[in-house]
Amino acid sequence: PLIKDLFGLTELEKGLKKILGMRRVTVVPGDSDRSGWVKQEMGKAGARLLKQLARPDQVVAVAGGTTVAAVADRMTAAPGLKETTFVPARGGLGEAVELEANYIASLMARKSGGHYRLMHVPDQLSADAHETLVKEPHIQEMLQVVRSARIIVHGIGDAKTMATRRKSSSALLERLEQADAVGEAFGYYFNRNSEIVYRGRSIGLGLEDLEKADAIIAVAGGSSKAEAIAAICPAAGRDTLITDEGAARSILGRR
Ligand code: G3H
To answer: Measuring from atom 9 of ligand 1, which residue has the nearest CA?
Structure first.
């Protein structure tokens, strides 16, 4: 039997597929809240899938965070990826540089031998500045490229953790708490019913753009993200989830 079966991981994958309505689920052993290597394993699984799915001349849009960064870390040169253009899914979201989508897109390109294009948009824009910037021809062109993505790779965060990590104002923290936000992805915050309760003002891929993609790969694990994953998967395309045993057991256990 497969090692996976011995751990009961295949059962967890089946259970999550059913409960979250996903097309593809991979569960790696362990809980990334407890051991760092588990995130590396999710990274490995993500890199492997990207290699399998690669087609010439495709665009891959990537979001930020440590888990998508782990995917980038594990990427290696592959023929299909050489003709891939990696782009950030959205402009800045207020993360440390090495967790920003721009940086991760460039890292994926370097590791896989592909190309990248960046989108330089500051995160904390006023409404006026945002409106002006979106109209810039360079940004417009870049947005078209981003929206043409064949594959999208994104992380999922616990709402409070993400809002704090991005140094959100106390007003926003309070607003998210009142709205019962549990998860975050692409700068969108969701409640338990998979409804958007807050959307930041960054520029890039919107949820409405996900439908056009061939594959939407969410990479997120750790039992602390169980609620966030359960809330976001149904809202973000119901396609592919790469997670860990910690999150999987906790999601299945609470149903
Ligand atoms: O939007 C979700 C976050 O980027 C996830 O970040 O992978 O570091 O937990 P993380």
So the answer is: 157
Distances (CA, A) of 85 to 47, 190, 240: 15, 30, 21
**Ligand 1 binding site (Cβ under 6 Å of any ligand atom):** 63-67, 155-157, 162, 184-185
Atom of ligand 1 nearest to the CA of 156: 2
Amino acid identity at 191 = N
- Retrieve residue 9's tokens: 């991981």
pLDDT digits (tens, 9 = 90+) for 18-58: 999 999 999 999 999 999 999 999 999 999 999 999 999 99
Tokens representing 251 are 């999601």
* pTM score, whole prediction: 0.95
Residue 126 CA to residue 27 CA, distance in Å, equals 41
**Nearest atom in ligand 1 to 184's CA:** 1
CB atoms within 10 A of CB 163: 23
Closest CA to 161 of 180, 179, 182: 182
User: What percent of the chain shows pLDDT beyond 70?
Assistant: 96
Q: Which residues does residue 184 pair with via DSSP β-bridges, in sequence order?
A: 157, 189
pLDDT in tens, 206-226: 898 999 999 999 999 999 999
Judge whether 101 and 88 are in contact, CB under 8 Å. yes
Complex ipTM, two decimals? 0.98
Helices (H) and strands (E) in the chain, counts: 12, 11
